[in-house]
Amino acid sequence: DIHMTQSPSSRSASVGDRVTITCRASQSISRQLNWYQQKPGKAPKLLIYAASSLQSGVPSRFSGSGSGTEFTLTINSLQPEDLATYYCQQSYSPPNTFGQGTRLEIK
Amino acid sequence: QVQLQESGPGLVKPSETLSLTCTVSGGSISSYYWTWIRQPPGKGLEWIGYIYNSGTYSGTTNYNPSLKSRVTMSLDTSKKQFSLKLSSVTAADTAVYYCARRVVVVIANSYYYYMDVWGKGTTVTVSS
Hints:
The complex is a heterodimer. Chain A has strands spanning 4-7, 10-13, 19-25, 33-38, 45-49, 53-54, 62-67, 70-75, 84-90, 102-106. By secondary structure, chain A is mainly β. Chain B is mainly β. In chain B, a hairpin with a 7-residue loop joins strand 5 (46-53) and strand 6. Chain B has strands at 3-7, 11-12, 18-25, 32-39, 46-53, 61-63, 71-76, 81-86, 95-107, 110-118, 122-126. Classes of the chains: A mainly beta, B mainly beta.
């Protein structure tokens, strides 16, 4: 299985901050990387697919980058509604494993 | 707008079989990969597997090796439903179970897969 590692595991930031979350794969996965946002008590929601493509309807303050083994999710100008846990997922090969999640708190 | 809804017992006894169904509404069940994911209380997401529904390859499955010996997925296209069965459950199978639609897109001659529509999830507790 491909192991996905996110950092940090948790982060606290203020409204308006720029936040970066990193995801590393245990082997190269090209650009087969997706990002999901999960708000408390809710199902995950797709933010970014193919490493950097923004899902329709997702605010443009979210962006993704990277290829190979290292990927980044960036949130520009953090908003209160961005309080959530963020997960990366590789779609390179089954099982399509997830990172352990990054819990984002708003100061 | 496509919506997914999980249904099934909320309580299952140890050693028995967990059975869940996901109903697709507002869109087609054809030409997609239908996926199950679970999340134990307070923990992260675990990919269980998918079943594919399109033409000659309809019914093709791919399961997480860690669960493969206990998992069966099936489709009922007439009801626009797909199902998950997990046998010989233990307390470790207690989780919120989600169904999701996995889609494929082509970007610069490469195929990319992601889950764009999710159900709200259903909680399954394994306990006697």
